[in-house]
Amino acid sequence: MDRPKKHRTGRLRAILAGVIAVCCFAGLSVPAMALTFTDVPVGHWAYNAVDWVSNNGYMNGTGGGLFSPGTDMTRAEIVTILYAIAGKPGSGGGTQYSDVSGSAYYAAPALWAKNKGLGIQNSSTVFAPSTYLERVKIAEALWKFAQVINWTTSAVPNITLPYTDISGLTTAQVNALKWCRHYSIMNGTSDTTFGPTVLVYRAQMAVMVKALADRASGFYPVNSVSVRKGMCALCK
Length: 236
Known about the structure:
Blueprint: H1 5-26, H2 47-55, H3 75-85, H4 107-116, H5 135-148, H6 171-182, H7 202-215, E1 227-228, E2 231-232
Helix pairs in contact: 2-7, 3-4, 5-6
């Protein structure tokens, strides 16, 4: 006679827990379970990136089983993602923005980004967490972030950009675009345009973060079951 389903389920959970414990102490890694979003099904152009960022804790869903891939990214969301990628190192102290409450989920990330000079804020005193960042600002932030995590390939590539709509950009912004294009982190909106003022939506951000991870070191997955810094993530 088969055992009752709840007994079988309990035994499977116990076995899984044992396997995870052995892997932790043996220095092995256990692949994270895929998270399913109904609006990013298998076959969606950003599926792999969304699956990766969600499993590693860099981007969460928006509730109700949704990822909202077409929703534009806010400053608060972007700074929180980069802060998580950096391993949540702490804000570093200093003067907080006038419109950021100390209890806000993005408070430490916002101050950290300010101290690192990532340029995600609206001004030196205002963060504007619910507003959006244009593509050129995100490109510049990603390039500066690569320097923050000591990615040795953050040097500006010696390439010529094909974009005809970037004449008004600063030298730093142009350098960021060269870096993003060379390492396939952010391409143009067409073969000849970059779209500096176009906004970035969540699916695009997931793809950029995954592309950065594929080319950089220094990432700290906050949800993965792996040994990092000498301690099993599940054993903390």
